[in-house]
Write a structure and sequence with these properties.
heterodimer, A: mainly beta, five-stranded antiparallel β-sheet, B: mainly beta, seven-stranded mixed β-sheet, four-stranded antiparallel β-sheet, 11 strands, globular
Chain lengths: 110, 116
Amino acid sequence: RKEVEQDPGPFNVPEGATVAFNCTYSNSASQSFFWYRQDCRKEPKLLMSVYSSGNEDGRFTAQLNRASQYISLLIRDSKLSDSATYLCVVDQTGANNLFFGTGTRLTVIP
Amino acid sequence: GAVVSQHPSWVICKSGTSVKIECRSLDFQATTMFWYRQFPKQSLMLMATSNEGSKATYEQGVEKDKFLINHASLTLSTLTVTSAHPEDSSFYICSARRGWGGNTIYFGEGSWLTVV
C-alpha cells in the first residue's frame, strides 16, 4: 500500500468553479501535512501547510481528518493560473523525509 | 528568490558518461538534503537522503554505486549519475530542510537529464 494516495485526475473545471482534492495517508503516526503545487517542468512549491483545525489562505482551504487519515484541499473561484499539479505531502515523525502523492492535475478552462 | 539552488538545469550527455548535479542551500545550513527523481507524469520518488559528513541513505531499489551522493559541506550536496543510460533520463530534484527540526522543505529548481 502506498504511503500517500491521491486521485490523479485530471480535473478540468471552468473559471470560477470550486474544486476539491482529497488524499489519504497510511501511517497514523504522521504528524505534518502539506499541499504543494507543481507547474509543468518545474520544482514543487509549498502551497500551504495543513493544520488539525483546518486552515484557509485566500481562496484555498485545507482540512485534515486524522480519524479517517485524509487531507483535503478546496479551491474556490478557480483562476486560469491555478492550473497545475497539486501534490499531497505527508511528513512522518522521525522519518526525516516527505512522502508524496502522485499529484492531481488541475486544468482551469476559460 | 530561491533558497536552494540546483545546477545544471538542463544537461544532455552521451550514454556511458557520468553527470554531476549540484544542490546548494543559499542562505542556510542544511545538514540533510534529499534527492528525488521524477519521470514524466509521475510523482516525485525519493532516491536518497544526503547527510553532511556521512554516507547517504539510499531508498530500496536505488543503486548506490550508480547514483553517487556526496554531502561535503553544510551547503552543498552533489549527485553523480555514473555510466548514464537512456533510462536514467529524468527530472532530478533536491530539497533541504531549513532549520533544525523545521518542517519547511525547500526544493531546488530541478535538473533535466537526457541521456542519448
